[in-house]
Amino acid sequence: MIKIVTDTTCDMPVDWFDRYQITTIPMNIQFGLETFREGVTINRDTFYRRIDTEGALPTTSQPSVGEFMELYETLAADGSEILSIHLTSKLSGTWQSAYMAAKQLQGQVKVSVVDSLTGSPGLGFMVREAAQLAKMGWPVEKIVSHLEARRSQLKIYILLKDLRYARMSGRVGRLRETVASLLDIKPIVGVEEGNLIPIDRVRTQRSGFKRMVMMAQADIGEAPVHVGMVHALAQTEAEDLLAEVEDHLNCRDTFVTDLALSLAVHFGPGTVGFATYPADET
């Protein structure tokens, strides 16, 4: 039996975690000397309220090697094999922690660790497909090869509304230089080889949404895709954008969900983005 593990940056409908029997390991969110486990000891309302009250962003960190080892050993107690799929290693040390845990358990537990080179709904679709393929009887090695091929096929489009978070964040790489010089310009961000990159800039959210749809249409054409929409305190805007996406792309299935707190801390409230994932037969 193959068991799938991911982390809390994996954004997908809540019911998918049960339906596909996905186990998640929490990211850490730290306000001063207080450390919280995402989705376990801190909720969305508390997270945003503390940022507003304290006027400063929390820091985030990956689960420890020890936490991964404990989880893997628990899941493998019945002889199961583990497939662990995580947020891009270019933005987080999560993959490295998982890899080191797997290495230390070598010979005791069979663990394969995949760097998704993405996150949020892109990671969500990879995790779901891994679970579907495992149920179909694919061996782990074949699933891993398939997911690694998928990484270059999925597309990410993110529009930032509140640039304060990106300015303060130390995890956005090349975006720091971009947002530092912007006034009323809103950046559209993509992911390239696991890194966040600025791909365009607009003056209004409305024009940003139209531009994102145009870029997705140019990138994907008529190919069938799954679309995952995420947002940070912008449910209505996300639903409106999804409606536009569905009008212009060949969507097989879609969803809208909240952006993981451990990612929202770097992008800010008002952020809306989506991932497209190939929907061809596997």
Tell me the name of the CATH class of the largest domain. Alpha Beta
Q: Radius of gyration over alpha carbons?
A: 18 Å
- Summed over residues and divided by their number, the pLDDT gives a mean of 93
Give me the secondary-structure category: alpha/beta
Give the N-to-C terminal Cα separation. Answer: 20 Å
How many helices? The count is: 11
Shape: globular
Give the total of beta strands.
Answer: 13
Helix content: 40-55%
Strand neighbour order, sheet with most strands = 10-9-8-13-11-12
Please give the largest β-sheet: 6 strands, mixed
What would you say the CATH architecture of the largest domain is? 2-Layer Sandwich
SSE pattern: EHEEEHEHEHEHHEHHEEHEHEHE
CATH fold-type name of the largest domain: Hypothetical Protein Tm841, Chain: A,domain 3
Sheet-strand content, in percent, reads 25-35%
Please, how many domains?
A: 2
Describe the structure in your own words.
The chain has 282 residues and is an alpha/beta fold. It folds into two domains: 2-27 and 62-150, Rossmann fold, CATH 3.40.50; 155-278, 2-Layer Sandwich (Hypothetical Protein Tm841, Chain: A,domain 3). 40% of the residues lie in helices and 27% in strands. The protein is built from eleven helices and 13 strands. It has helices at 14-19, 44-54, 65-75, 94-104, 120-135, 140-150, 164-168, 175-180, 205-220, 235-248, 261-267, and strands at 2-7, 22-25, 28-31, 34-37, 59-61, 81-86, 111-115, 155-159, 186-192, 195-202, 224-231, 250-258, 272-278. The strands form three sheets. It has a six-stranded mixed sheet with strand order 10-9-8-13-11-12, sandwiched between helices. Strands 2-1-6-7 form a four-stranded parallel sheet, with helices on both faces. A hairpin with a 2-residue loop joins strand 9 and strand 10. Helix 3 crosses helix 4, helix 5 (120-135) packs antiparallel against helix 6 and helix 9 runs parallel beside helix 10. The longest helix is centred in the middle third of the chain and has 16 residues, at 120-135.
